[in-house]
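Researcher: We plan to redesign the surface later, but first we want a full-length starting point. Tokens attached.
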């Protein structure tokens, strides 16, 4: 799964990443975030009649038929690729509402439940990662429209499986267009991602929301004195 991630980039970087944004929009300052948690607001890239657009969305998909409040439904922050086209929660969005979720990196944990070690995983060259996603429109009990989104996940391979059994599905730039158009099949979600690297970060990451505005949240740290020092950041492809 992907339970926490980072979006820290400039307007120029996200503009170039999007190839570029084609729906007219003024340049603006973007708030860097380093500890994004479920149900908070994230950036997503969608395709509209006017072109590609960077939008805000709630992280945690809410299906359009949901009755009640947003708090009365489990936040579907991840959607498994294995059932993305058959699960009733996700298949409508998979066909009609695809998105790209830009990420500077994501976090996973190793170790015992009460003493987990957080790891930060990012692109080796520092590029923005393109998580494949889906989104939906939903109206709450007051009629307010809420856009929500979910990150598609897949099985980890040998490299990632040393940390976790799942990982986000990552798109290649040459698949952006067909993915957003709904023409690409699930095979693009299984392509090798870019070269990645990982390192251990501060244990304060074990608490949701801590350091969301602090770049040190994603910085490498030494372990406590009674714990072996971490090995150098691992690098390499996931395949």
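Model: Full-length starting sequence:
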């Amino acid at each position: 799964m992907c339970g926490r991630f980072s979006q820290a980039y400039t307007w120029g970087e996200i503009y170039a990443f999007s190839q570029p944004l084609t729906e007219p929009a003024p340049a603006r300052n973007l708030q860097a975030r380093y500890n994004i948690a479920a149900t908070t607001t994230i950036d997503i890239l969608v395709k509209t009649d006017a072109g590609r657009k960077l939008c805000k969305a709630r992280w945690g998909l809410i299906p359009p038929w949901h009755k009640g409040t947003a708090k009365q439904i489990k936040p579907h922050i991840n959607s498994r690729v294995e059932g993305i086209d058959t699960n009733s929660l996700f298949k409508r969005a998979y066909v009609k509402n695809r998105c790209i979720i830009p990420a500077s990196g994501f976090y996973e944990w190793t170790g015992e439940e009460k003493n987990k070690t957080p790891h930060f995983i990012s692109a080796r060259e520092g590029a923005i990662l393109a998580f494949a996603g889906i989104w939906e429109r939903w109206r709450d009990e007051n009629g307010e429209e809420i856009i929500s989104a979910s990150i598609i996940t897949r099985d980890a391979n040998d490299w990632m499986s040393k940390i976790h059994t799942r990982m986000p599905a990552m798109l290649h730039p040459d698949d952006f267009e067909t993915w957003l158009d709904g023409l690409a099949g699930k095979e693009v979600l299984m392509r090798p991602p870019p070269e990645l690297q990982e390192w251990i970060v501060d244990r304060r990451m074990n608490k949701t929301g801590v350091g969301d505005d602090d770049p040190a949240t994603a910085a490498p740290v030494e372990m406590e004195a009674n714990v072996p020092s971490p090995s150098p950041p691992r690098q390499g492809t996931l395949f």
